[in-house]
Design brief:
Layout lengths: L3 E9 L4 H11 L4 E9 L4 E9 L7 H14 L3 E6 L5 E6 L4 H11 L6 E7 L5 H6 L4 E3 L8 H13 L4 E4 L8 H6 L4 E5 L11 H8 L3 E8 L9 E8 L6 H24 L3 E4 L2 E4 L2
Parallel strand pairs: 5-6, 5-8, 6-7, 8-9
Antiparallel strand pairs: 1-3, 1-4, 2-3, 9-10, 10-11, 12-13
């Protein structure tokens, strides 16, 4: 694939935003190969994502950011520009369940996910062989149920040491403390085995079975200080009936979890997600 710069932005809506950005890029002979826009009539905000062929511009990424700055300031933008040649440094975290982790590793191994996987951290050693088979470092960070602070301090140290851009909680069965959530805002992705905001917390399939639901699902979302309440990136569902036992729901739910997490992670890695408040705009 051709190397591209990805411009992702949000600003108060007004006439001429697209024209100003396009004119700026045309001034330097920049070629736009993908453009997406969304105007939200309820908030009065405008969202945009452009992919620009890197080799059509006469300068590097840092210079592009510098020369684009005045336009961004004039339009009151929140924005970022990334380089497809620098995949996000990604740390996966899991506990004992393997289905989400194995799926991500397989997609990465097949070059279906453009991430720089710098390691897998776990509070158990069950998945070490799976991880190391893929040639990825495995970090065992045990948790003392009576004192979890050392574990989370080790996680924070690892994130810093590996210069992590993105953390993926691939069925990591621990609740992150507030300081870790604040450390990587909009960069910690979780898969919740429920169609949020229903059935928050532990054992959602048991809760769903007790309610006799006809649809179960999974939610990929960013982690915030409030449990299972961060901005939602993707969701999906599968139909069940009264004939399905809890074990059936868990089995069917795992299939949905895998797909939803992989899809949400892909969109994040490709800079297709704009967080605005507690909602997202996803240019998928």
């Amino acid at each position: 694939m051709s190397r591209v710069y990805r411009l992702l932005m949000a600003c108060p809506d007004q006439v001429g935003i697209v024209a100003k950005v396009a004119s700026f890029l045309a001034q330097y002979n920049g070629t736009i190969v993908e453009a997406n826009h969304h105007a939200d009539p309820y908030t009065g905000w405008f969202f945009m994502r452009n992919e620009i062929l890197a080799d059509t511009l006469p300068f590097d990424l840092q210079t592009l950011k510098t020369v684009f700055g005045p336009i961004a300031k004039d339009l009151q933008m929140t924005w970022r520009i990334s380089d497809s040649a620098s995949p996000k440094r990604t740390l996966l975290m899991a506990s004992k369940e393997s289905h989400c982790l194995a799926d991500i590793l397989n997609r990465w191994h097949s070059q279906d996910l453009d991430a720089n996987l710098v390691g897998v951290a776990s509070n158990h050693q069950d998945l070490q062989g799976l991880v190391e088979w893929h040639g990825i470092p495995f970090y065992h960070l045990p948790v003392d149920p009576k004192d979890k602070a050392p574990h989370f301090a080790a996680v924070e140290s690892l994130v810093s040491e590996l210069e992590v851009d993105t953390v993926v909680l691939a069925r990591y069965m621990q609740i992150l403390p507030e300081n870790l959530c604040k450390l990587l805002p909009g960069r910690i992705i979780n898969i919740h085995h429920s169609f949020l905001p229903s059935f928050v917390g532990a054992k959602p399939y048991h809760q769903a079975h007790e309610r006799g639901v006809k649809l179960i699902g999974a939610t990929c979302h960013y982690v915030t200080q409030e449990l299972d309440a961060g901005p939602i990136i993707d969701q999906d569902v599968i139909r069940v009936s009264h004939r399905d036992a809890i074990e059936d729901m868990v089995r069917l739910g795992k299939d949905v979890e895998r797909v939803v997490l992989a899809r949400g992670l892909r969109w994040h890695l490709e800079d297709r997600v704009v967080v605005h408040g507690n909602k997202t705009v996803v240019f998928n």
